[in-house]
Amino acid sequence: MNKEIIYDIIGVGIGPFNLSLACLTDDIDDLKTVFFDRKECFDWHSGIMPEWSTLQIPFIADLVSFADPTNRFSFLNYLKETNNLYQFFIRESFYMLRSEYNQYCKWASQQLHNLHFKTNVECIQYDADLQHYILTVKQENSQKTSQYYAKNLVLGTGTTPIIPEFCKGMSHKVHSSADYMHHKEDYGNKKSITIVGGGQSGAEIYYDLLSSIDTSQYQLNWMTRSAHFFSMDLGKLTLEYTSPDYTNHFYSLPQQKRDDVIKSQSALYKGIEIGLVNRIYDQLYLKSRPSPLSTRLMPNSTLESVTETENGLALVFYNSDTDQKFKIQSDILILALGYEYKIPKFLEPIHHLICWDKKGRMEVNHHYAINAIENIFVQNVGLYSHGFTVPDLNMGCYRNAIIINQILGKTVFPIEQRIAYQEFKPLPEEIIN
Ligand SMILES: Cc1cc2nc3c(=O)[nH]c(=O)nc-3n(C[C@H](O)[C@H](O)[C@H](O)COP(=O)(O)OP(=O)(O)OC[C@H]3O[C@@H](n4cnc5c(N)ncnc54)[C@H](O)[C@@H]3O)c2cc1C
Asked: Given this model, what pLDDT does residue 2 score?
C-alpha cells in the first residue's frame, strides 16, 4: 500500500455498512479507497449467533442489491459461486441464517484488496492547507504507527453493548449478550441464570437456554423493564416506514418533533420478532407438560443494582407497576440491553470541524455528512436525525448510494424517490393556514 497516496475515501471500521461501501465503490474507475478495521478479519456479531438464528430482513437487503442488483457482490452471486443457490431456493425462505450472512460478508471481504484488518485508527487530524485528513493507524502487534491521507472520511465504527456502570468490573459473572456464544458451554453447570432485556437478543438467548432447561436444570429468569414482552411490528404498511420516503419525511421534521416521534416508535425496531415470541411460548408449553418449569418471565422490572455475594449475584429490581423493589439471587447475569453509539476518541483533534447539536450529538445532515464542507460521513449514527432505520441493514445501500453520489458530485446510483403507497404529510396546496 502506497502511503503517499491521497485517497478519495478512507473508511474507518469494516462492519456491514462500510463493507457495502467498499463493494459498491470497487468498480468505480479512478476512485482510490481504503478501509481499516482493528478486528482480525471480517466478523459480524458471531458472539450472539445461535445456529438457528436468521436475519430479520430478506436476503435482497444484502451488501449491494438495493443500490445495484447487478453487482457481483450480491448474495445471489455468493450462493451461485459457492454452489448453494439451489438449496437456498428449495428451502423457500427469504431469511438467510445469521451465520450465512457472516459467511457471505467474509466472502465479499476476501475479494477486496483495499480492506486492512488488525489496523486500529488512532487519531485523525486535518491539514487545512492541503485540505485533506491525516489518519494515524497502528497495526496489531506493532509499536509503529503509519499515516494515511484522505479527501473524504466515512466513519463506520458501529455501536457497543450497553453495560450499566454498576455492572462494570464483574465480567466473570455478568456477561453481555454480545458474548453469549463464548460462555454458552459453561451455562449448563450453573444453578441460575438471569437474562435482562426484552428485545430480540434477550429473546434469542432465553429461547436458546430454554431449549436445554430440562437437561441442564438451571433456574432461568427473563426480566424486562418494558410493560410487556412486545413483538416488533412487521406489518407491510409499517414496513413502508423503512423507505426513502419515510426517511426523508422524518428528516424534514423539526428536531424536537423527531426526538418525540422516535421515542414513540419502539415497536418498530426494538421488539421481538413475532415468530420467535410464538416459538418461546410453544417451548414453554411443551417443556412444562411433564412438570412445572424452573423459569420466570417478568415485565415491568428494571435492574437497579448488582452485588457479588457468596452465592453468586444479588440482583435488585424495581417493579414499576407495584412500585416495589425486589431482590433475586443468580449465578450469572446476561445483559441484553441494546447497543449505543460512542463518539470515537480518534475524532478529538478534529472535534471543532464537526457540527454538534444542542444535546452534544453529531448533527448529521441530509447526505449523512457531519461537517460544514461535507467530507466526513457517518454510518449507523443519527436515530434522532434520520430515524429508526439508521441501524437497519436494508437501508445500508440507500445511505451508501447517497454518500457515493455526494462525494462524486454525480448520480452513480439512482435513488428511488417514492416507493410508499401511504403519504406521510399533506400536499402543500392542501394545507390550511
Ligand atoms: C446481534 C445483532 C443482530 C442484528 N441483526 C440485524 C438484522 O437481522 N437486520 C438488520 O437490519 N439489522 C440487524 N442488526 C443491526 C445492525 O445491522 C448491526 O448493528 C450492524 O452490525 C451495524 O453495522 P456497522 O457497519 O454500523 O458496524 P459494526 O458491525 O459494529 O462494525 C463496526 C466495526 O468498526 C470497527 N472499529 C471501531 N472503531 C475502530 C477504530 N478506531 N479503528 C478500526 N476499526 C474500528 C470495529 O472493529 C467493527 O468491526 C443486528 C445487530 C445485532 C447486534
From this structure: 47
Cα 87 from Cα 83, distance rounded (Å): 9
Looking at domain 163-232+270-335, its CATH architecture is: 3-Layer(bba) Sandwich (3.50)
Q: Residue 299 forms beta bridges with which residues?
A: none
**Domain 6-159+341-408 indexed as CATH 2.30.30.240:** no
Rounded-to-integer distance, Cα 302 and Cα 307, Å: 15
Ligand 1 centroid, distance to 382 Cα (angstroms): 15
Q: Is the CB of 55 under 6 A from ligand 1?
A: yes
Per-residue model confidence as pLDDT tens digits over 314-343: 999 999 999 999 999 999 999 999 999 999
Give the residue among 183, 164, 219, 160 at the shortest CA–CA distance from 335.
164
Q: Is 379 in the pocket of ligand 1 (CB under 6 A)?
A: yes
Torsion of Cα atoms, 232 then 306 then 174 then 341, to 10°: 50
Q: Does any ligand 1 atom lie closer than 6 A to the CB of residue 120?
A: yes
Place of cell 445501500: 397
How many degrees, rounded to 5, is the angle at CA 261 between CA 259 and CA 264?
Answer: 115
Q: In the 8-state DSSP scheme, what is residue 314?
A: E
pLDDT tens for 206-237 read 999 999 999 998 999 999 999 999 999 999 99
